[in-house]
Amino acid sequence: MIRFRGVVFSVLFFASLSSIAQTDTLKISLREADRLFVTQNFYLLASAMNIEAQKAEIIQAKLFPNPVATAEFNAYDPQNEKAFHTNQTGEKSFQIDQLILLGGKRRSQIEMAKSNADIAELELQNLARGLKFQLHTKLVEIGQQQVLLRKYNSQLALLDTILTAYEEPVRKGNIALKDFVRLKGVYLNLNNDRADLLQQYFEAQSNVQTLLQTSSLIYFEFSDNDINSYIKVKSLEELKEVALDNHPELLIMRKNRILADQYLRYQKQLAVPDVNVFVSYDQRGGAFTNQLNTGLAIPLPVFNRNQGAVKSSAFRMKQAEYTLQALEHEKLSALQNHFALYSQTVAEYQKANRIYNSDFELTIRGMTDNFQKRNVSLIEFVDFFESYNQVLAELARIKTQLVTSAELLNLSIGKDVY
């Protein structure tokens, strides 16, 4: 009964998967996935809006302060006992003030706004690289899981055929019941392995669908030639140089250091007082009738010369320098470890390729035929069958790890080298 339910589940699942494949499957290559990712991912679109917002701040920084217009009217004239006495014999005055920024403050505000826009663009690049790493690694997982699922399905169908053929001989006593139970155990173990793989498969599907903003089932087209393209001979020192020039987090930190320097300069400029120029007209309140005045106002930097803010900004700049040095060391150390993992994975992949060849497929078919003809014992068949599945799972792991380690190097470098 257990075996029957397992077969029913297998048939129903793959029938539904086939139905989905016909109606709502997105067949995609790595390049096509990148194209969809760039145009459809909402996180990237949101980050792009931040860039536009920072560019708008540049426009704002270039604007001059608005003039201030002031109007004053008589509310009550106690001498003539008149309210709002503003005619020719009354009183009214007008004034226009214009603030003039000195010391290069406006230029510094523009420079800081431009630096913030540059940082926003680098943050978009950093976000895109992180999400792209997730996309590529999950796609490769899906591709290898699809291969394993097909093989597991084929083997389960084979075992089901053998078990069906054994039912009558077991009933008649021609085949030992323990052998029949052992085969059922092999079937259930393989079915459990496939169930675990299915869970991982749909989790990876969910991640990729989120990244590509699609509800379609992803069918990833990825050949061994595509995997081999990740094998490239590069020296660690060469990769370190590329990383120092291209890693978005390092570039962001360098831009933050520049921004800290600009902010320090701006705080020093704030110590330079600004001038407020004004022009005013007074009808009867001044020394003369219809008096026209002009003048300026300037704060005297006697007590507050922005000393605290300048000192704080100087420490902030030092902080940015130390943080940059720490980040460079961190990224280069991570790159070194990722390079070691990549080198080991390449060696493991090349060794596995030499070991695994078409002989495995021929042997499993031969073992199956000879087992059905009873030329091979149950123990020999089961041992080889389980070993063969372990080899398949290990090959899928090695291929996935090779691509993942190469993509991790790309992420650590900040540029697609592999």
Instruction: State the end-to-end distance.
Output: 51 Å
Low-confidence stretches: 1-23
Beta-strand content bin: 5-15%
- Mean pLDDT, to the nearest integer, reads 89
General form: elongated
Topology summary:
Layout: H1 2-23, E1 25-28, H2 30-40, H3 42-62, E2 68-73, E3 76-77, E4 82-83, E5 92-100, H4 105-172, H5 177-212, E6 217-220, H6 224-228, H7 236-246, H8 248-270, E7 275-282, E8 291-297, H9 307-355, H10 358-372, H11 378-413
Parallel strand pairs: 1-6
Antiparallel strand pairs: 2-5, 3-4, 5-7, 7-8
In short:
This protein is α+β, with helices and mostly antiparallel strands.
Characterization of the model:
The chain has 418 residues and is of the alpha+beta class. Helices cover 71% and strands 10% of the residues. It is built from eleven helices and eight strands. The chain has helices at residues 2-23, 30-40, 42-62, 105-172, 177-212, 224-228, 236-246, 248-270, 307-355, 358-372, 378-413; strands at 25-28, 68-73, 76-77, 82-83, 92-100, 217-220, 275-282, 291-297. The strands form three sheets. The protein has a four-stranded antiparallel sheet, with no helix packed on it. Strand 3 (76-77) and strand 4 (82-83) form a beta hairpin. Helix 3 (42-62) runs antiparallel to helix 4. The longest helix is centred in the N-terminal third of the chain and has 68 residues, at 105-172. The radius of gyration is 38 Å and the shape is elongated.
